[in-house]
From TrEMBL:
GO molecular function: metal ion binding; protein serine/threonine phosphatase activity
Pfam families: NIF, ubiquitin
Entry keywords, A to Z: Hydrolase, Magnesium, Metal-binding, Nucleus, Protein phosphatase
Ranges where the Ubiquitin-like domain occurs: 14-85
Organism annotation: Ceutorhynchus assimilis (cabbage seed weevil)
Protein name per the record: Ubiquitin-like domain-containing CTD phosphatase 1
Obligatory cofactor(s): Mg(2+)
């Protein structure tokens, strides 16, 4: 449903339609104005700041029009629909700050499996059972028979969500699409982030993961699929129990599932199925030398071809893994 009344252009300005967040907004702009002027008009209508706006189909000669480009140069027709991506400041603050209840630097010694040993405690198994019963998963692509399961975190695993950049490509971890393409041969892929579903979808679009031609994502899981547990040293923490997936899909189990996350605590309910990936930060520097995903793709290939039970492998030593003959 549109949020405006149809009317004729006024004061020599032409009407344009901005499609954002499932709604449509009408703005008026002069042909002598620039794209920067258009973004300011969009700000008044939507509340999205110009630097947050990404006008997807506003192009000149096949390239995204820069802010100095005049509207007349674009030769837009009346009521031309412009697709916009962008988030309100309060939404960005909410989803980015959600994980900040936890310290940035994690000492792995504080999360030794033998120290915690909580994965079989009845109180947490009941929480998992409740998630299995109540949490609704939106299947994007049906799981394929005979495939293993790869569960991936987003922030600092697939991209650097804190460094300033002009595009998602600048924040994306090197070899991401090559990694996902290679993994898709043997694994169904699930994205699980400790943020909101809205932000997960936004990030996957930004990275070009949602509709890539060489691989498909089975489904997304957000913070609502996580559970809270109590640890002796760190108090109450939120974790990602793989049992939520195993309870909903009988073809997946501890034997054929592996999870990558840059924070070890996220898989303390499944310590034998988690691999702590090196954090990807300061993308402007490290995107030229980070090859973690390239090397991990080879590890996943070895697991898929030679290992029938992932819980028998110490994933902390993945770089030295040699399949048994």
């Amino acid at each position: 449903m549109r949020l405006f009344m149809c009317c004729k252009p006024t004061d020599g300005k032409i009407p344009l339609i901005i499609k954002w967040s499932g709604k449509e907004y009408e703005v008026y702009i002069s042909e002598n104005d620039s794209v920067a002027d258009l973004k300011r008009e969009i700000l008044y209508k939507t509340g999205v700041r110009p630097e947050r706006q990404k006008l997807l189909n506003l192009k000149l000669k096949g390239k995204v029009a820069d802010e100095e480009c005049k509207i007349a140069t674009l030769k837009l027709k009346q009521n031309f629909k412009i697709m916009m991506m962008g988030s309100l400041e309060q939404d960005i603050e909410q989803v980015i700050s959600a994980p900040e209840n936890f310290p940035e630097v994690i000492n792995d010694l504080e999360f030794e499996d033998k120290e915690i040993a909580i994965e079989n405690q009845e109180i947490y198994l009941k929480k998992i059972a409740k998630r299995v019963k109540e949490y609704q998963i939106n299947i994007l692509n049906d799981p394929r028979p005979g495939k293993k399961l790869l569960v991936l975190d987003i922030d600092y695993t697939l991209f650097d969500h804190r460094t300033t950049a002009q595009s998602g490509a600048e924040l994306m971890r090197p070899y991401l699409h090559e990694f996902l393409t290679s993994s898709y041969d043997d694994y169904d892929i699930v994205i699980w982030s400790a943020t909101s579903m809205k932000w997960i979808i936004e990030k996957m679009k930004l990275l070009g993961v949602d509709k890539h031609p060489s691989y498909k994502i089975a489904f997304y899981l957000d913070s609502l699929a996580m559970i809270s547990v109590h640890t002796p040293k760190n108090g109450v923490i939120d974790v990602k129990p793989l049992g939520v997936i195993w309870g909903k899909f009988e073809q997946f189990s501890p034997k054929n599932t592996i999870m990558f996350d840059d924070i070890r605590r996220n898989f303390i309910m499944n310590p034998k199925n988690g691999l702590r990936i090196k954090s990807f930060r300061e993308a402007h520097i490290n995107r030229y030398k980070d090859d973690e995903l390239l090397r991990l793709s080879r590890y996943l290939k070895k697991l898929a071809e030679h290992c029938t039970d992932f819980t028998t492998v110490n994933h902390r030593n993945w770089e030295k893994y040699k399949p048994k003959k």
